[in-house]
Amino acid sequence: MQRLAGKDIFPQVQAKLAEEVARLSESGISVTLAVILVGEDPASQIYVASKERTCGELGIGSLVTRLPAETTQAELLELVQQYNEDPQINGILVQVPLPAPLDEDEVLQAISPDKDVDCFHPYNLGLLTAGLARFVPCTPFGVLQFLKHHQIPTSGKKIVILGRSNIFGRPMSILLSQKPWDATVTLCHSRTQNLAEECRQADILIAAIGKPMLVTKDFIKPGAVVIDVGINRIADPNHPKGSRVVGDVDYEGIASVASAATPVPGGVGISTIAMLMYNVVNAARFANGLEAFEL
Ligand SMILES: NC(=O)c1ccc[n+]([C@@H]2O[C@H](COP(=O)([O-])OP(=O)(O)OC[C@H]3O[C@@H](n4cnc5c(N)ncnc54)[C@H](OP(=O)(O)O)[C@@H]3O)[C@@H](O)[C@H]2O)c1
């Protein structure tokens, strides 16, 4: 089974983006991402630090605002509005999940669609659905880069996606059913009957359900390509930290049946930030009347 590693693709994507940021800067266009983090969620703090670091590596300005968990909805909306109106800021990212009782949907919909680099706003999802995408949500976009880089055929192929979230499964299914991907897509979720049987039809199986190693050998059609988006931490007394990260797929278990698969960690994980940076660069280009940057 071929190992589809993220490091074979995304460092090069980031290098191209750094060059583009430098080119834009020479023509007087700066690129800046504003990130809002509310509360103390440890995973969110790690994600935000990692976005800040990547911005620095690419020459993208980052403005990170850390707010206490007690921040009110009105205060948060006011800050988003301030960033919407600030011409120096090209992209706005509110780190989710937000602490209760903040209304996540209202906050995400308050972000100007022109600066919605996560592509969570219904306006941008509507454009994507109509085949007119300006931004593409980062993780589905990352998966498309794996398919493109490895020239994995999708046209006329049967693709099964596990998980129907707005951040991954649903936009992934829409994109792959559109041109130029032209796949026949089945979108599965927790109410899907005979899940393993559905999955065994897939030429390409994409899992994003957050269930550690639920996808076993029995789910795989011989020769299928498997993309594992899941990130799950499980207890492991043999590991120095007492736990380790696994995907939604039993990577070792499927090795005798699948033709290629992404490992976890080391696969899709690093793609999301790279594609976020791509969206931020494009937001700056669009704001200055330029077309999307070709990767
Ligand atoms: N950068 C990255 O690599 C990245 C980015 C995003 C997400 N992720 C990971 O991807 C996984 C999914 O994330 P998400 O935000 O899309 O998840 P989510 O919002 O929790 O949605 C999970 C989806 O999986 C479905 N599901 C749950 N259990 C299932 C089962 N036993 N059989 C079939 N379907 C099942 C749910 O069905 P219902 O709709 O019926 O509830 C739902 O559609 C998580 O492990 C997350 O950490 C990774």
Automatic annotation (TrEMBL):
<dbReference type="GO" id="GO:0000105">
    <property type="term" value="P:L-histidine biosynthetic process"/>
</dbReference>
<keyword id="KW-0554">One-carbon metabolism</keyword>
<keyword id="KW-0028">Amino-acid biosynthesis</keyword>
<comment type="similarity">
    <text>Belongs to the tetrahydrofolate dehydrogenase/cyclohydrolase family.</text>
</comment>
<keyword id="KW-0521">NADP</keyword>
<dbReference type="InterPro" id="IPR020631">
    <property type="entry name" value="THF_DH/CycHdrlase_NAD-bd_dom"/>
</dbReference>
<keyword id="KW-0486">Methionine biosynthesis</keyword>
<protein>
    <recommendedName>
        <fullName>Bifunctional protein FolD</fullName>
        <ecNumber>1.5.1.5</ecNumber>
        <ecNumber>3.5.4.9</ecNumber>
    </recommendedName>
</protein>
<feature type="binding site">
    <location>
        <begin position="163"/>
        <end position="165"/>
    </location>
    <ligand>
        <name>NADP(+)</name>
    </ligand>
</feature>
<keyword id="KW-0368">Histidine biosynthesis</keyword>
<keyword id="KW-0511">Multifunctional enzyme</keyword>
<dbReference type="GO" id="GO:0005829">
    <property type="term" value="C:cytosol"/>
</dbReference>
<keyword id="KW-0378">Hydrolase</keyword>
<dbReference type="GO" id="GO:0035999">
    <property type="term" value="P:tetrahydrofolate interconversion"/>
</dbReference>
<dbReference type="GO" id="GO:0006164">
    <property type="term" value="P:purine nucleotide biosynthetic process"/>
</dbReference>
<comment type="pathway">
    <text>One-carbon metabolism; tetrahydrofolate interconversion.</text>
</comment>
<dbReference type="InterPro" id="IPR020630">
    <property type="entry name" value="THF_DH/CycHdrlase_cat_dom"/>
</dbReference>
<dbReference type="GO" id="GO:0004477">
    <property type="term" value="F:methenyltetrahydrofolate cyclohydrolase activity"/>
</dbReference>
<dbReference type="InterPro" id="IPR036291">
    <property type="entry name" value="NAD(P)-bd_dom_sf"/>
</dbReference>
<dbReference type="GO" id="GO:0004488">
    <property type="term" value="F:methylenetetrahydrofolate dehydrogenase (NADP+) activity"/>
</dbReference>
<dbReference type="Pfam" id="PF00763">
    <property type="entry name" value="THF_DHG_CYH"/>
</dbReference>
<feature type="binding site">
    <location>
        <position position="231"/>
    </location>
    <ligand>
        <name>NADP(+)</name>
    </ligand>
</feature>
<dbReference type="GO" id="GO:0009086">
    <property type="term" value="P:methionine biosynthetic process"/>
</dbReference>
<dbReference type="Pfam" id="PF02882">
    <property type="entry name" value="THF_DHG_CYH_C"/>
</dbReference>
<dbReference type="InterPro" id="IPR000672">
    <property type="entry name" value="THF_DH/CycHdrlase"/>
</dbReference>
<dbReference type="InterPro" id="IPR046346">
    <property type="entry name" value="Aminoacid_DH-like_N_sf"/>
</dbReference>
<keyword id="KW-0560">Oxidoreductase</keyword>
<feature type="domain" description="Tetrahydrofolate dehydrogenase/cyclohydrolase NAD(P)-binding">
    <location>
        <begin position="137"/>
        <end position="285"/>
    </location>
</feature>
<keyword id="KW-0658">Purine biosynthesis</keyword>
<comment type="function">
    <text>Catalyzes the oxidation of 5,10-methylenetetrahydrofolate to 5,10-methenyltetrahydrofolate and then the hydrolysis of 5,10-methenyltetrahydrofolate to 10-formyltetrahydrofolate.</text>
</comment>
<feature type="domain" description="Tetrahydrofolate dehydrogenase/cyclohydrolase catalytic">
    <location>
        <begin position="4"/>
        <end position="118"/>
    </location>
</feature>
<comment type="subunit">
    <text>Homodimer.</text>
</comment>
